[in-house]
Amino acid sequence: MTPAPVIIAVDGRSGAGKTTLAVELAARLRQHHKVSLFHLEDVYPGWNGLMPGIERYVATVLPPLNAGLAAEWTSWDWERHYDGGLKVTLPAEIVIVEGVGAAAEAARPMLDAVVWVESPGDDRRRRALTRDGSTYEPYWDTWAAQEDAWLESDPVASAADVRVLNRADGSAPDDVLQALMYLPSMAAILAPELSARRGLQLRSERVDTTPDAARLFEALYGQSANAVWLDSSNASAVAGTSQAAARSRFSILADDGGTYGQLAMHRSGVTQVTAGCATVATSGTFFRWLDSVWGRRAVRAPHGYDGQFTLGWLGYLGYELKRETGGSDVQSETPDAALLFAGRAIVLDHREQTAWLLALDAPDADAWFRTARTAVVAAAVRAATAVDAPSGTVPEFVSRDSAADYKRKIAASQHEISEGNSYEVCLTTTLEAPAGSLDPWVAYLNLRRRNPAPFASYLRFGELVVASTSPERFLRILSDGSMRAEPIKGTRGRSSDPAEDAALRHDLVTSLKDRAENIMIVDLLRNDLSHFAIPGSVTVSRLCAIESYATVHQMVSTVDAHLNPGAPRAEAVAAAFPAGSMTGAPKISTMDILDQLESGPRGIYSGAIGYFSLNAATDLAVVIRTLVVNPSGTNGRTLSLGVGGAITADSVADDEYEEIRTKAYGVLSTLGAGFPG
């Protein structure tokens, strides 16, 4: 008797490619394990025998294998159409069972992983008849009807751990193996495969030219279903070695293509990861999943490269992830998090005026370097100066709260403050509009030209698009453990008249209210960072400094700390999430107040955008000044823009309402839209 094996079921309808997938998967696993393979077609009692075959399999094959014993079973003689001889499937470290019904309901309690293979019906029939010829053709409809009847009562596909869209191009076995590594039930047994996957080699190439980032992104990733551009769009306006220039030094362009590309989506406790044609779903909190895929130094930075991003995960964390960090559970129309894994990317160093091509060593790396190099050089050719282009429909926004409603909520916030339940309430509302014919890409290009910012970004996850011109850093953790947060609290609109603009700036500098708001958030962040910082390392290196952007002056502080060696980095991010500048203080009780006051979820707004790098570094911006194009909103394809401000005991309702209008102006005016009401 051997120890109980891990049993993987490969199921799906006839012709989906289950047999080939199972055989190839077994071949890969045999590099490190003893593997047995069982095919259900060996026990179906004839062309009308789907259900009896499943019963035989569940009764005679699975129980002994699950117990680590040899399984003795009666085969079916397809030529004589009668029971054949006795056969034996030996126990093994890993057992793969394959065939229609391999993951039937009665079998699932004995299985460790279920792989469901899908393929279009016409392809399935063609593949099945090509494999089995005229033998199968007279029985195709009979067998398909049995499959239909079985699947009506047994939702196998929805119970699968991994779903595969089998294109029969040879990619499925590797993609399925990658997906299986995410399953907790498979983690221990697949440790050798996981270790080999982590033995990554980073290749790099420096190109000494300055490409136009927008042209480069469109050339390389314009047709990518999922792509990210972390865009320091104000780099040309902040030269030198100042903090502002340092924040705007690098831009990152990537998609989820190539050997290592993956896509992760999290909703309400379930993380779904797509690797090529395979998709795996795992239950658990997002930050626990993040800890399993990020936080260890897997690669070293190339010589001469000063950036912290060395490939990894890029995307957004939505505000509703607060359910994992002390907030209540609120459902959002958009995924709670969306990240793609970039196994290759281009990093633009705006200070050195160079482009770095980064890729994990893989069979397709050489071809990608050639393509990327050509695109960088082509995008460096000077083009005519771009001007704002029409982005389609001029949206007509409506606000979740009328002016009167928002001012009533300001009063309610001040009541909570007077009761001692909060010191500061960051009250928000949402502007929404039908998307109509608006082109998100053109809209973003217009936004970045009119509102350049250090943490601008363009994210595309299928039809879900995020276009941000955020000026605010949420949290940075360098590879060496240095941490930094740079909260913004205090905003004034800018004026084209120099004297009036200077007066607006002076008003912000001398505002006791804005200074108090900023200091409260600084204190909150000092506490957030201290949870995983070396004691005594938390400092405030800059307090209430003024930074000016295209449409606003803002008050910014800087909080620094150093991560405790060995501290879990994903938990350090969670300890600070969501940004205190978007909640108020104290954070947990104030988030509860906000849930009661605000009329719906914030979604992506108030969350974070950035990267989680393979060298254990992260840099995340606060999601503000951000337009979201949601393809599956309540009323179809919609646009949304979140706006808000910090309410304190001495806030004046009219002033606070005017502040959210000021913050919305930079985005709305670019779209040709006005503030509703």
Give an account of the 3D structure.
The protein is an alpha+beta fold. Helix content is 31%, strand content 30%. The chain contains 19 helices and 31 strands. The strands form 3 sheets. It has a 17-stranded mixed beta sheet that branches. Strands 8, 9, 10, 16, 17, 18, 19, 20, 21, 27, 30 and 31 form a 12-stranded antiparallel beta sheet that branches. A two-stranded antiparallel ribbon has the order 3-4. A hairpin with a 2-residue loop joins β12 (270-275) and β13. The longest helix is centred in the C-terminal third of the chain and has 19 residues, at 512-530. The mean pLDDT is 93.
List its traits:
17-stranded mixed sheet, 677 residues, 31 strands, single chain, alpha+beta, 12-stranded antiparallel sheet
State the end-to-end distance. Answer: 75 Å
- Give the % helix: 25-40%
Principal-axis shape: elongated
Oligomer: single chain
Question: Rg from C-alpha positions?
Answer: 28 Å
Number of helices: 19
Report mean pLDDT, rounded to a whole number: 93
Q: What low-confidence regions span 5 or more consecutive residues with pLDDT below 50?
A: none
Beta percentage is 25-35%
**Structural class, please?**
alpha+beta
> How many runs of DSSP E, i.e. beta strands?
31
Please outline the major beta sheet.
17 strands, mixed
